[in-house]
Amino acid sequence: AQSVSQHNHHVILSEAASLELGCNYSYGGTVNLFWYVQYPGQHLQLLLKYFSGDPLVKGIKGFEAEFIKSKFSFNLRKPSVQWSDTAEYFCAVLDNQGGKLIFGQGTELSVKP
Amino acid sequence: NAGVTQTPKFQVLKTGQSMTLQCAQDMNHNSMYWYRQDPGMGLRLIYYSASEGTTDKGEVPNGYNVSRLNKREFSLRLESAAPSQTSVYFCASSGLAGTHNEQFFGPGTRLTVL
User: What DSSP letter does each residue of A5-61 carry, written as one string?
Assistant: First the structure.
């Protein structure tokens, strides 16, 4: 079965610091990958997604992620975080059977003003 | 479009009570999903419905039942609530099963079982 691992459970940064959140998945075939964000008290929203093509994917709010097939990784990056980026971030892979999403454990990001 | 809606937003139950969580989507999506979110465990799939008339178990189906009432609505029922079912429940929908379409999430239901 596919699985997703997010290494950082809680990241604390100051405003303007650079961000990189790790995500590794287990499946070795064709993968469809997602990053979702959940702001405090809100539902999940899509940040970005990768299906094929350019491995560097740009999403909303200045976020980007790089798909590295050889490392089974899909890390999320942002050059300069803002206080409003405080949220929980989830990496997910699309299960090829049934269209289900397999989520990682989530990374809580706290940005200090 | 309202997207994905869920009712209720909050609920407190006593052990052994039953309840149904309602979910509806107005995006004409074929597939619908129920997840539970627990601290440090991400989102885990309870049940899903790839299309109207079909339902399948996910990762953590025990203690739950679902009904795909029509294309728009997908309900989750707890027949006899247990404290271990205290969680935040999210419903989601997507355009076509097994394709690249992203999932759209509802606002969640926060359930506490005493």
Answer: E---SEEEEETT--EEE--EE---SS--EEEEEE-TTS--EEEEEE-SS-SEEE-GG
Contact yes or no for B45 and A90 at CB 8 A: no
Question: Are A107 and A37 in contact, with CB atoms under 8 Å apart?
Answer: no
Minimum distance, in Å, between the CA of residue B82 and any CA atom of chain A: 23
Please tell me which of the candidates A6, A51, A99 has its beta carbon nearest to residue B98: A99
Amino acid sitting at position A81: V
Report the DSSP pairing between strands A107-112 and A10-14. parallel
CB under 8 A, 24+ apart: contacts of B69-72: B71/B28, B71/B29, B71/B30, B72/B24, B72/B25, B72/B26
Phi then psi for residue B94, to 5 deg, are -145, 160
Tens digit of pLDDT for each residue in A87-110? 999 999 988 766 688 899 999 999
Q: How many angstroms separate the CA atoms of B114 and B112, rounded?
A: 6
**Cβ-nearest to A103 among B40, B42, B99:** B42
What's the pLDDT at A2? 78
The closest CB to that of B43, out of A9, A90, A97, belongs to A90
- Give Cα separations from A4 to A91, B44, B73, B88 (angstroms): 7, 12, 29, 21
Q: Cβ contacts (< 8 Å) between A103 and chain B: which residues?
A: 35, 42-44
